[in-house]
Design brief:
Largest sheet: 8 strands, antiparallel
Radius of gyration: 22 Å
Number of domains: 2
Structural class: mainly beta
Distance between the termini: 20 Å
CATH class of the largest domain: Mainly Beta
CATH architecture of the largest domain: Distorted Sandwich
Shape: elongated
Length: about 350
């Protein structure tokens, strides 16, 4: 199977150079993310990080909404396209830090032990924060103080703390404005390819002959704003927003208005995982049959319309499909694919 490579309006490469944290210029629009002298708990301007230094951004190696895939079978195409397993949206962010790093609460409250390696803090007002992959140093029901009490230390071999924020039981994006602060993002998501398939797993259709109801799939990824060290270095993350529209190739007239395919700017989608991600998707260092593919980058394939794109609703002709990806700070890029609808012509 070959991949249609669209013309991109963004000239940056997928493996773009990363600016050092201290060299990133703060714009007036991002002034709210200036380092805080001392983080405050649950302020409108945000809260500090759960690891020291609290008032400085840390590398995030996995975004909110990233694919989390654990396949039951071996690493084969059959397993990838049809295999069972555990498939879900990442319900927090993974903050890259060395093993044994102390982890602190970002809000004061009362603890609850979710497991032998997860601590939750009830901050009041329906807000709960969770800290995964740590060896707890607190007990259940203990009162803790933001940025003072050590909740635990990162477990050996994990090299990150998974951080989740819930509001009234619903996981929210910790990187959205007004949450983890300071946080900036200077990278731009890339729409790497666009293709048409007869169904979720193929076969792929030539763009010169698109007909009937088709599944339109875009491969999209971003890179962490701050370079991640270790075996997770240079591995992609998912965008926060993916939209698309269709226009006539001859005059640019929009015939299918802008639609949203994927949006995790605030909360996670309520639909099943495979209704938004397309088969063939897998996470970084994906798990096949209990074996991790270390250093192997993930592939993020998105269905633009879970119900399929019905080409019979448009007259035969030449069109452009425009896909736009954005991150949590609004950095965007678009790519387009020209295609020809030919219904009733030998289909």
């Amino acid at each position: 199977m070959f991949t249609i490579r669209p013309h991109s309006s963004h000239s940056g490469s997928f493996r773009r150079a990363q600016l050092p944290l201290l060299a990133v210029a703060l714009t007036a629009a991002a002034a709210v993310f200036v380092a805080l002298p001392r983080p405050a708990s649950a302020q409108a301007s945000g809260y500090g990080w759960p690891v020291k230094p609290f008032n400085m951004a840390h590398p995030v190696r996995a975004n909110f909404g990233d694919p989390r895939t654990s396949f039951n079978g071996p690493p084969t195409l059959a397993t990838l396209n049809e295999g069972t397993g555990i498939f879900q949206f990442h319900f927090g962010v993974d903050i890259a830090v060395p093993d044994y790093t102390p982890v602190y609460p970002v809000c004061s409250g009362v603890t609850r032990l979710l497991s032998g390696r997860t601590v939750a803090v009830n901050c009041g007002g329906g807000r709960v924060t969770e800290y995964w992959h740590i060896v707890p140093s607190v007990s259940a029901g203990q009162k803790v103080v933001a940025y003072e009490t050590v909740l635990g230390r990162v477990m050996k071999g994990y090299e990150h703390v998974h951080f989740t924020e819930r509001q009234h039981g619903v996981a929210v994006n910790p990187l959205a404005p007004g949450h983890l602060t300071p946080y900036q993002d200077t990278t731009t998501p890339t729409v790497e390819s666009i293709e048409f398939r007869t169904n979720d797993t193929g076969p792929e259709l030539l763009p010169e002959f698109v007909h009937g109801r088709v599944v339109v799939i875009a491969q999209v990824s971003d890179m962490p704003s701050i370079p991640v060290p270790g075996i997770w270095a240079d591995l992609p993350v998912a965008p926060a927003l993916l939209t698309w529209h269709v226009e006539r190739a001859s005059n640019g007239k929009v015939v299918v208005p802008r639609r949203t395919a994927f949006d995790v700017r605030q909360t996670l989608p309520e639909c099943p995982f495979w209704s938004l991600y397309a088969r063939g998707s897998r996470q970084n260092a994906s798990n096949f049959g209990g074996h991790k593919a270390w250093r192997e980058p993930g592939i993020y394939l998105f269905k633009l319309d879970p119900s399929g794109f019905d080409t019979t609703r448009l007259p035969n002709g030449i069109y452009r499909l425009v896909v736009t990806a954005a991150d949590i700070r609004g950095n965007t890029s678009s790519s387009q694919q020209t295609f020809v609808i030919r219904n009733g012509q030998g289909s």
